[in-house]
Amino acid sequence: MLFSSKQFTHCAPNHTTKATQIAVNFIRHLDQMRILFLGDIVGEPGRKAVINNISSITTKLNADFCIVNGENSAGGRGITPKIAKELFAAGVHVITTGDHVWDQRELLDYLPNEPKLLRPINYPPDTPGNGSVVIDSKFGKIAVLNAQGRTFMNPPLENPFTIVEDEVTRLTKDGVKIIFLDFHAETTSESIAMGFHLDGTVSAVVGTHTHVQTADERILPKGTAHLTDAGMCGPEISVLGRNVESVVWRFKSGLPTRFPVAKGPVRLCGMIVDIDPDSGKATHVERYNNLLSPSEMS
Ligand SMILES: [Fe+2]
Ligand SMILES: [Fe+2]
Q1: Residue 194 pLDDT level (bands cut at 50, 70, 90)
Q2: What are phi and psi of 290, to 5 degrees?
């Protein structure tokens, strides 16, 4: 046996998942930081599911820190100050966004005054808000970064590879060891390339934006945890969180169509990563994938 029992804490398996069962590692080294990341929250169903369950989920997983991507939490388009405050009050530590960050105009006044709500870091320098934040934790300082890819993405932003690299260099010089990046990108190649680009210099790189969880979680050769896309927190019976019939009709007819957010049971998708605070390296990574039960939805 490698470790004494005192070094570990145990948490119960969290899953009520019916379609997909992924075993969460329920043994955890207490001197390592566990981060739960949840992908794009879609509309009221996703928002309510996260707000109502995040406290119990982090308790069951024994997670120390929670990051969510909230770019679609307001009716599928952007995030409002009210929603951001509700997510923080529910236990979320940092909210990341992406290409939908400006969809709700009221955010323009709120974003510069809430450092824990991020927009992509590779906007021009005078853009309101920040793409990086450093927070004190019992494991030391943790930096959360948010960047946006450039392949098939709008608006076209500055080069995320160079800008994130510069920010990581600055953070490392400041003594920050735990660095987590939400890379909001359309293509799997750009997301994977970012993971390897930062391998060994950050703790974790997780992709968002496609709303579809990939099955490639791994720790890269130099110690960075990577998942190409975390997936979304939204209605299970949907097309990327939107009403099925509307999207199918759009593809079939080619006509302009509104895409309301779908209803029904919600699946929460994301990533769990354990990090050694002394080295900043990841020691464990897995997907989080949980179809909520009816009682968890009420
Ligand atoms: Fe997006
Ligand atoms: Fe999204």
Answers
A1: very high
A2: -140, 110
